[in-house]
């Protein structure tokens, strides 16, 4: 079942097109990764989803209905931006309780658990908080909400590695409860750990959408080869990248559509070992962006 669906979202600011024909859907109980570098159009797309801006064209649908026909649709969404701003003279605890009251949530036990796990001092005023602590207040409030769609835009900015892991754990917990999560990030390892499906955006356009396993056709296979022979000729083959050989071990990447040719070539050598490493999201991402920038 589709919780959120974007159909051809385009947003222009004068002559500048920030996003163009952006379309994807997020299903019930899934983590959807939305990746791209700064300026690619991620935040503009999210602002269109939450109603902060109106798209020039296209449609946002929530639970199968256009949001323009749902005046109260925002109650179904919890949004955490990458740079959280809070009321300076309220304490963190007061802000969290305010958002709880707004959503009708009275689960103080869960609130206290989250505050403890995120290591937040709720008695301090927000004006004294670091960026990371402001982020914690917003994340705790989002996880406490009754929203069935959680939107995180660069959510771990300012968090230390321990708090990043705490965030990851609660994302998966929300998913297990049937909530849907849109995770927008430029941290590829974070998306790779959490996302069921991903969309890659470049220069305002979606260039690929799908499960990670479905995108392996556009990535490169990473090989480690142990051999006493010189594999320099293999390193010069079309589709072979980042070749290096030292001490009886060669390492290189191969375009997926050239794997058959490279394996055929390797049969001519005396091999002591051949190891294939799984492709990474970074390989997919960088191959697209290298192509877009004209890099090899």
UniProtKB/TrEMBL annotation:
<dbReference type="Pfam" id="PF00005">
    <property type="entry name" value="ABC_tran"/>
</dbReference>
<feature type="domain" description="ABC transporter">
    <location>
        <begin position="4"/>
        <end position="228"/>
    </location>
</feature>
<keyword id="KW-0813">Transport</keyword>
<protein>
    <submittedName>
        <fullName>Putative ABC transporter ATP-binding protein YbhF</fullName>
    </submittedName>
</protein>
<dbReference type="InterPro" id="IPR027417">
    <property type="entry name" value="P-loop_NTPase"/>
</dbReference>
<dbReference type="GO" id="GO:0005524">
    <property type="term" value="F:ATP binding"/>
</dbReference>
<dbReference type="InterPro" id="IPR003593">
    <property type="entry name" value="AAA+_ATPase"/>
</dbReference>
<keyword id="KW-0547">Nucleotide-binding</keyword>
<dbReference type="InterPro" id="IPR017871">
    <property type="entry name" value="ABC_transporter-like_CS"/>
</dbReference>
<keyword id="KW-0067">ATP-binding</keyword>
<dbReference type="InterPro" id="IPR003439">
    <property type="entry name" value="ABC_transporter-like_ATP-bd"/>
</dbReference>
<dbReference type="GO" id="GO:0016887">
    <property type="term" value="F:ATP hydrolysis activity"/>
</dbReference>
<dbReference type="InterPro" id="IPR051782">
    <property type="entry name" value="ABC_Transporter_VariousFunc"/>
</dbReference>
